[in-house]
UniProtKB/TrEMBL annotation:
This is Bifunctional protein PutA. It comes from Bradyrhizobium amphicarpaeae. GO terms for biological process: L-proline catabolic process to L-glutamate. Keywords: DNA-binding, FAD, Flavoprotein, NAD, Oxidoreductase, Proline metabolism, Repressor, Transcription, Transcription regulation. The active site is at residues 265, 299. In the C-terminal section; belongs to the aldehyde dehydrogenase family. Residues 46-488 form the Aldehyde dehydrogenase domain.
Amino acid sequence: AAAHSKIPLPGDLYAPERRNSRGVEFGARLGLDRLLTDVKAETAGLGPIADATAEQANAAVTAARAGFASWSRTPATTRAAALEQAAHLLESRGARFIALLQAEGGKTLDDALSELREAVDFCRYYAAQGRKLFGVDAAMPGPTGESNTLAMRGRGVFVAISPWNFPLAIFLGQVTAALMAGNSVVAKPAEQTPRIAREAVALLHEAGIPKDALHLVAGDGRIGAALTAHADIAGVVFTGSTEVARSINRTLAAKDGPIVPLIAETGGINAMIADATALPEQVADDVVTSAFRSAGQRCSALRLLFVQEDVADRMIEMIAGAARELRIGDPCDVATHVGPVIDMEAKQRLEAHIARMTREARLHFAGHAPQGCFVAPHIFELKDAGQLTEEVFGPILHVVRYRAESLERVLATIERTGYGLTLGIHSRIDDTIEAIIDRLQIGNIYVNRNMIGAVVGVQPFGGNGLSGTGPKAGGPHYLARFATEQTVTINTAAAGGNAALLAGEE
Ligand code: UN1
């Protein structure tokens, strides 16, 4: 690995308009082929990363509890500097992480690049926010004769449970937020992607996060359950399914002792509404991006497209036409648009859904997938949106026609799903757009563009209802939820002790 660590990752690599057309050139310049061969050989040689035992999970919490004492007292500027150093290391070893994302996460070059960018952004953004929030105790307004300050501090040991679909960005986003707020962390990555997590933790340690402040525990849901059930944890941050978030909530609620907060980002049955005033070419492009890129394995991905009846035939035809052009296959081939799904279990689940839809709905398009862990993009037309009752985490799009006068019914249908993560609107009528935005409690709404790939610090990401608790990741309110607040009021008018206490501060 060290031999490749000097490979530069030029900033312009991230420019989205340059990714597709020059992907081949970039891939060659980075030496990705060689790196990927190395990563594959290394991972094959090392075998799987062993799951932790429940005892090891408990020991990690105990060690993190000890690490909290000094990390929480480390100045916020030092904590922020460690995150900034991590961002720098990530960038300078970008190619290595891209190769890992491809080898372990099955990511296309395009997806791996944007994930790396997001991971770097999280580190820098939380460092910058943290300097503001934790750097100085805020002076509160108050009457004369009294000093009031509000300080924010770490809560204790935070458990971070992250998903396989963003094994670097979401993993690091959770962990760096918790650390920046002054917590120590026990991180439990998805069982499908432990190696990326392990390298990310090693990088954070190297960047200056003390070993005892950050612990990695590999394993499946049982290890996650053991961690959340531990008596000494002070918070949980989780990204994954609504069902698991509920079970974490129950575990936390059943414990004696302090009330432990859960910050959860979960699923969605994300919709897009395209009316007759939308630009068809743009809709086709944005639908294909939103529904099929990343093989639909984003919680932000489009699942349910409502198309106004007047334009539906033509629109569906154009979307199918655009989908036909997607190249599905080896994620390490830079020409690939859609890579594999995460594992055979996911493939089987998705194929069962495709089989059900083939019986119950009208098939408009089925792509071709190679042998192996691939699922071909599909487009089904439903009679009724109610036929889709759960989040389907793959490249399957469901289309429903609506009449202009029944837009209200469409909104009620979206509301009834109970989810509120992302929504797309394609329309050229401002009143329609505004009415939809006003009406729906949805976390991220995208107008006349695709609905994936929220940018840290620009499009704070996260949903409502069944989609999560908030606050939004990559947004200005996220870090505060990881911290405790302490208000100190000092009577400065009284003679003696209090005045002396303040004077002593100066
Ligand atoms: C997820 O897929 O778990 O906007 C959330 C996006 C990403 C989604 C991350 N930030 O597409």
